[in-house]
Amino acid sequence: MKKYISLVFAAALIFACGETVTAGGKGAFSLPRPYKENNSQLWTAAFAGGCFWCMEPPFEKLPGVKAVISGYTGGKEKNPTYDEVSYGRTTHAEAVLVVYDPKKITYEKLLEVFWRNINPEQADGQFYDRGPQYKTYIYYGNAAEKAAAEKSKADLLRTGKFSRIATELVPAGEFWPAEDYHQDYYKKNPDHYYRYRSGSGRDAYIQSKWGK
Questions:
Q1: What is the pTM for the complete model shown?
Q2: Which of 31, 51, 111, 149 is catalytic?
Q3: Which one of 52, 68, 113, 130 is at 20 to 30 Å from 101 when CA atoms are compared?
C-alpha cells in the first residue's frame, strides 16, 4: 500500500510539471486518501464542473494546492480516453483531482471555489457542453467530506442566488488521468482556451452571479 500511495503522489507531481504520463498506465487513483511524502501529509479531492480545462485554473492558484490533474471518474470503464468520455461512450465525467495540503487550505475552501466556478442549476451538463459526462459532481471520500459538501450545498441555496442546485454528491471512486495534452491546457493553448471559455458563456455567467 505504501508503494502505491507514493506512486500516486509521484504521478501528481509529474503532471504538475507538465511531463508525459500515459493515462491510467499505472492504474487509477483511488480517492480520496491521505498519504505522506517528504514528511508532509497531503490529501486529494475530486470535482466535476464540466470541461476540465476550465476547472484547473481556479484551483491551481490557491495557496496550499500542490497539483490539479484533469481526468475521468465516476464510471465503471477502465482506462477511458478523451474521445470515449467526451462523446458520451462511457459512464465517466470529466473531472479534476486536487492535491492539497490540509494544513494550508481546507476542504471547505475547495468547495467554495468549486461552487463559484460552475452553474449549479444546470442539470444537463455545463454551459454549451451537454450530456452526463459534463454534469457537475462532488466526489466525497468519507462521512466528514460528505457532511461538509451537504452543508456547503445547503448554504449555497440559502444565498438566494439559485433556484435549485442540480450538482450531485456521490462517493469517490477511481480517477483516471486524462491524456497529457489536456493537463494545464490553459497554459499550453491559451488563445484557444480563452476563446472556448468565453464562448461557452462560463465567464459571463460567473460574473452575473458573483461579480468580477
A1: 0.83
A2: 51
A3: 52
